[in-house]
Design brief:
This protein is mainly beta and 718 residues long. The chain contains eleven helices and 34 strands. The protein folds into three domains: 232 residues, Rossmann fold (3-Layer(aba) Sandwich); 176 residues, Jelly Rolls (Sandwich); 109 residues, Jelly Rolls, CATH 2.60.120. Strands 13, 14, 15, 18, 21, 24 and 25 form a seven-stranded antiparallel sheet that branches. A six-stranded mixed sheet has the order 1-2-4-3-5-6, with helices on both faces. Strand 13 and strand 14 form a beta hairpin. Helix 2 packs across helix 3. The radius of gyration is 26 Å and the shape is globular. It starts with 54 loop residues before the first strand and ends in a 10-residue tail after the last strand.
């Protein structure tokens, strides 16, 4: 049983806790028992898991759907030493993806990058699970890969296809009738869609960084997310188109279908792609209600700082209300592009293994706590790339002991538990500069007193925003920060809304300049330990690096305070079960803890800037990971000399002198910095590829390469 540690209460001028009762004269205070320190659950120690017993065999087929469209299916299942299929009723794992053959393999390496073989290649779902007695099915969504048809953007045809394929897989003679789905990003969205269709034989889903509605991919209450906003307009169509162009694996097979998915894209939503209105196009791609109601156990995996599939996309899971049998991993990580679905390494492999063994193979195995939230004390960028300090465990999500603490902004810029007695306001001028400098742009800040003790915040915060604007269309963004004693700020949640959509995202209503409106912008889920001495900050702006600054200019934004004014509610966990995050996350931990190799600094200058990785847009820095050091992780920080969106890619030199593919990458929408993390780099020569994705030609990029030892200590600074 998980032990409760402490009762947390705010005890500062801003957050006054209850007065401590003192013993009377002659009385002695009874001794306080020491709190029991819970331990983190180590998934690598789970007993009773399936083990490798078989060789494998792969077969392919084209499966007809309801309208005659044929989708491409590959099945990897157990075989004997001669490659002949072994008779049996195998549990089934299904991955349904639009990326097969263009951006991704058909082995499931994206969702399961660890473990790797002797050549450093990921085993993936097929190489890991099929030898253990599973049938692993790979499905190319219609209009992608080797499947015929037109890209449907998770629409009604995709839904019917998924139902058909799940029920087909469950009914095959080699299946035990129990199908589970998993995947990451777009591939992590197909499981929730399938669950909403309630197909016969679907027993569980494990969606990673997915969503159940395309609206959540594009907008936060009408405010578009940077980069991903345009994905349903053009980016996915480009992927579908490439497979039919010269060099594509589907070229020449159905020429008439080339680009035929464009009429299914979000461009048919018209002006709503600017206003953020929820339209019929979004309605056809909204599976939240069915996914929430699905009567199967769900293992949800998401990062609160995901920069491609924002954490708002898992709200449908939150709405399940801590249903018995469900499980969640909520980390600080970002989307993990080019890296991993989580930052948990081999822990993730064994967690997924245990879950499928229990739900599909029906083995009696432990699957860990129902809710684990991975907490980091590092910087915002560091936490997104794998910094770790604690694990908050609970019996459900949202946490069972969480309560909402109500905080009131005041006209003097403070944030406290006592409501201001009189109405007030704070005004500022909105501008788009927050896209590159969220602290330098015009805004309004409300700051608490320092915390008297550590305070755990976990759940979904709520904001009742009372504000007026002077522009007819505007983006209002409220960001919650942890401010350290030195003034440094780290985002821990964010709200956003287009005031035109204040009565509902499907119901636009004109904004009258200068009129105060009561709005409830949705916020990002949080999981954070707000340390003693730190402050909580609520900052309002009209632009931010996470959002497209299409409507950011406003001469006067006014935030109302006092009676009837703006109110923030944050979820406080009263009895947090916190364990040190010391479980191994790499496959081969170093035998001896020692110092990491010294820090290295360098600068590179890509000649030009463009979204494609070409010799003109990239530059390289080569370096050595040296023998004799305890290098448990490599951290790379890149800072462009002027505002630029740079991406990082790490490659390793092979014995023949050639370079491997990308072994790690770092890519976000930041225009001021980028970072990359790579776990347990083996000794050898590496090169860092710096890509000027969006920036001026000849932009210098300054690099800092830091190795951490197994204790998390950096090597000596230069």
């Amino acid at each position: 049983m998980l032990a409760a540690l402490v009762v947390v209460s705010f005890q500062s001028p801003a957050f006054a806790g209850p007065r401590e009762d003192r013993p009377g004269r002659g009385q002695q205070r009874p001794p306080t028992p020491a709190p029991v320190q819970p331990s983190a659950f180590d998934y690598t120690t789970v007993e009773g898991l399936t083990t490798d017993r078989y060789a494998t065999v792969k077969e392919t087929l084209e499966l007809p759907m309801h309208d005659g469209t044929e989708v491409h299916i590959e099945i990897t299942r157990p075989a004997d030493a001669n490659g002949r299929p072994v008779d049996g009723n195998w549990p089934v794992i299904l991955e349904a993806s639009p990326y097969h053959g263009t951006l991704a393999d058909r082995e499931g390496m994206r969702i399961l990058p660890e473990p790797r073989d002797g050549n450093g290649t990921s085993l993936g779902l097929t190489g890991y699970f099929a030898p253990k007695g599973y049938a692993v099915v790979m499905m190319d969504l219609r209009g992608t890969g080797l499947s015929d048809g037109c890209l449907d953007h998770l629409g009604p045809n995709d839904a019917r296809d998924l139902k058909t394929v799940v029920e087909w897989a469950a009914s095959q003679p080699w299946s035990n009738g129990r199908v589970g789905m998993t995947g990451h990003s777009y591939v992590g969205s197909t499981p929730s869609l399938a669950a909403a269709m309630n197909p016969e034989g679907l027993e569980t889903i494990v969606p990673s960084a997915g969503m159940a509605t395309m609206y959540d991919h594009q907008f936060q209450a009408g405010v578009p997310y940077f980069l991903q906003w345009a994905g349903p307009m053009e980016a996915y169509e480009q992927i579908a188109l490439e497979r039919d162009l010269p060099g594509g694996e589907h070229v020449g097979q159905k020429p008439a279908e080339t680009g035929c998915g464009l009429p299914n894209s979000s461009l048919i939503a018209g002006e709503a792609q600017l206003s953020g209105q929820y339209t019929a196009w979004h309605g056809e791609r909204d599976w939240r209600k069915g996914a929430t109601a699905a009567g199967i156990p769900v293992f949800m995996v998401h990062g609160v700082n995901d920069n491609a599939a924002r954490v708002a996309g898992m709200q449908w899971f939150t709405d399940r209300g801590g249903r018995a049998g469900d499980k969640i991993w909520l980390g600080q990580w970002d989307h993990g592009s080019g890296c991993c679905p989580t930052r948990r390494g081999i822990q993730w492999t064994y967690a997924l293994h245990a879950w499928f063994d229990k739900q599909l193979a029906q083995r009696v195995v432990e699957t860990g706590p129902a809710a684990e939230m991975f907490v980091s004390d590092g910087t915002f960028e560091g936490s997104r790339t794998g910094d770790r300090s604690q694990i908050l465990m609970d019996s459900q999500w949202p946490p069972s002991t969480a309560r909402n603490l109500t905080l009131h902004p005041s006209a003097d810029g403070t944030l406290g538990t006592t409501p201001p007695a009189i109405p007030g306001s704070v005004s500022f001028t909105g501008d788009p500069s927050g896209f590159t400098d969220p602290q330098g742009t015009g805004g309004a800040d409300f700051v608490s007193e320092p915390m008297a003790q550590d305070t755990v915040l976990a759940g979904r915060p709520l904001l009742d925003l009372v504000a007026s604007v002077t522009a007819p269309r505007m983006h209002l963004i409220g960001t919650v920060y942890d401010e350290g004693p030195g003034g440094e700020r780290r985002r821990i949640s964010q709200f956003a809304i287009n005031p035109e959509l204040r009565v509902g995202v499907a119901t636009p209503k004109p904004v009258v300049p200068g009129v105060l409106y009561d709005m409830q912008p949705p916020g990002f889920a949080m999981a954070h330990d707000l340390r003693a001495g730190h402050r909580l900050v609520l900052r309002f702006t009209t632009s931010d690096p996470d959002k497209v600054p299409t409507f950011a200019v406003d001469p006067r934004v006014t935030i109302a305070t006092g009676p009837g004014g703006t109110v923030l509610q944050v979820p406080v966990v009263d009895r947090p079960a916190l364990a040190p995050d010391t479980v191994p996350v790499t496959q081969d931990e170093p035998a001896v803890t020692g110092p990491a190799q010294p820090e290295e600094r360098a600068s590179v200058t890509p000649p030009a800037g463009a979204p494609q990785r070409t010799p003109a847009t990239v530059a390289y820095h080569e370096f050595e990971v040296r023998v004799g050091f305890d290098n448990a992780a490599l951290l790379v920080s890149a800072v462009p000399s002027t505002s630029a969106d740079v991406d990082l890619y790490l490659q390793r030199q092979q014995p023949d002198g050639t370079w491997s593919g990308d072994v790690a990458s770092g890519g976000s929408s930041s225009l001021t910095e980028e970072s990359l993390r790579y776990g347990t780099p083996a000794p050898g020569r590496y090169r860092l590829e710096v890509h000027n994705w969006l920036g001026a030609p000849a932009t210098r990029v300054d690099l800092t390469l830091t190795c951490l030892n197994t204790a998390g200590e950096p090597g000596p600074a230069v």
